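Input set for joint prediction.
Command: fold jointly, output tokens.
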Amino acid sequence: MSDRGAGGDDHVAGGDDHVAGGDDHVAGGDDHVAGVTNVVLAGLGGQGVIKASDILADAALRAGFDVKKAEVHGMSQRGGSVTSDVRFGARVLSPMVPRGEADFLVVLAASEVEVARPLLRPGGVLLPPDLVPESALPNKRSLNVALLGALSEYLDIPAETLLAAVRAALPERLHAVNERAFELGRSLAADHDVA
Amino acid sequence: MDRQLLSGDEAVALAALHAGVALGTGYPGTPSTEILERFSELGGRAQWAPNEKVALEVGLGAAFGNARTLVTMKHVGLNVAADPLFTSAYTGVNGALIVVTADDPGMSSSQNEQDNRRYAVAAALPMIEPADSQEAYDFFFAAVEMSERWNIPVLYRMTTRVCHSKSVVVAGSTDGRAAGGGAASAHAPRTPQGAPAPHFEHDISGRVMIPANARPAHRRLRAKLAEIAAWGESDEAAALNHVEPGSGGHGTGTRHSLGIIASGVSCLHAAEAAPGAPILKIGLVNPLPVGRARAFAASVDRVVVVEEGDPVIADSLRAVGIALESKPEMYRFGELDVARVRRILAGDTSPEPVPARGKPPELCPACPYHTVYGTLRKHDCIVAGDIGCYTLGVLPPYQAMDTCVAMGASIGVGLGLRHVLPPDEARRVVSVIGDSTFVHSGISGLVEMAYNPPATGHVVLILDNGTTAMTGQQEHAGTGRTLDHLPTNKLSIEDVARAVGIGSVTVIDPYADPEGFERLLLERLAAPELSVIVARRPCVLAAADIRKWEQQAADFRAQAAPQAAFDLPLEAQ
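tokens >
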């Protein structure tokens, strides 16, 4: 479990009580804003990186967190490298995860693992594409959702909330296949070596 | 209160809807494109213009007619619209006119990283800059109020990160902090009164800018700007300009060693990089709240201006005698982020870590224009290129582009090369331009070509993939469909080319007939004539949608009355 898994239930209550946290920053020294979880998703254009980060951000919103999400559109849509940052917690300031401060790095393309690795903080959790064997996926296109399932093992967002966000983001005919992918990723993460 | 996760672009669209904007117009350009698309989805009236100049002129006319109007473009689009922009500052407006300029520091998808805060200074127009989506929503109302109070167009500056980042928005809130939005919305401005009803009043001396009218108009403009500057110092402007206390608590008797002056997304990077430091957060970036800045600077031991791009705020405040530190020159280039702001605050000018190079973008594998670039490369053509997906022809394996400067520039640049190069080189020059770019500003290039033909002739290759592909498949006048994909009059590229006097105009599908395309290109290059080749094949990403919209359009036409305006000159193919 990440050491910045946010402060648990008081953040999840929703409504007004968790936003007052503007002042609980660590005054200098610590590089992190207290209680913010940093996730970077990486892959290639067309793999569903942005879709996955939309789902994750929506789930964080549903769970009552402040949330910000950043990526660069444009040329990256043409098959190039894509990364998307999702930050959530009591109060998020900059929309971008500072380099080397991602708590979680989710990578959808093998070729992007080493490219993206410097974004991860020491001790952060890498979830690489080979965590979920392609042969085990109900549909090759659902790797993004499978890796979200794996990520859900680590987050202070209930799996059911993430699944609700998955369903909200996809047409109904894709729900069953993506729910299976999500559960597959979740079960595989339970055995994953965190290093 | 409903919490929504919106991009800055989406937040502006929602605000425009809630503010009663009667018309949104613009030209697609990353990162501004989604504003009008979302405005249309929400039920607003939105339309694409052929280019930013026309968009601003349409917007200005609507605002003369007392309607609230939104005009959107990317930063380089404001160059195209600059002519009407500068004089619209003199004429002023009746209904609000909000002009969004979406800047792209770091050039994620642009040909330069010009800082359009300079335009606000040059045109003497107020400029408002939000930091996140909540502010993009809230500040829009402040912009509308300002525009109608002073009868002046307002520039609304966003940047790539603000346009495309998603964050929580509580719409219609005057206290977003309590409702879970961003902190700045605690100062959210109030919603303006209901939108005015469009009507026209003659004001010849105010709107006809002959010198006799323009001279007093310039003085009126400067007087308005002085009033806005005074307003920017007042408590009324606290929504835009205020001090965020930082964790130490500013103004509580503690004197801080460090204070930061920032605007836009830089405020958020700074708040994270230096959580203890008070920040003078500037939302009205022109005219700057010089008095507030002076008082703020006096209240801290050391003040650092944190801003992306040019040192606009730092230079302006220094010019009025405020002692401050600005970023080292190396941080003029590219976006800022938390790490870079930490370095700025530490005065660190050591080399920055170079991010690993990921996979560059490329022409889609099934793009119909692989053939075209293969042919251009094979024959060692000198290619004056243009702006769009097809600019990717510059990358390996083709590297078949020699210039790319501005929208529509391919034709003029190609002609210039033809005029001066020795004939054997001149005959290899080809101008390559896309369909949307041709409609945007290629047509006048074609007029120039017919008017001042080079001795060797010239070849313009128009890659017509039936959409504005690079920005995400927007419609344009040449597709025959409006922003929301409904049928309208269709501009025929080949008819325009013939009408301006181009002798040889040929349409070909280079994907279906690559050998025919190669033969045609070589034949036209060899002929000392003016040639336009329209290489027509739909974008592979858009093809399915285009078929769907064509079907919708056919159904629509079948239902519509035969005298409907769009039904008269429909496509003549």
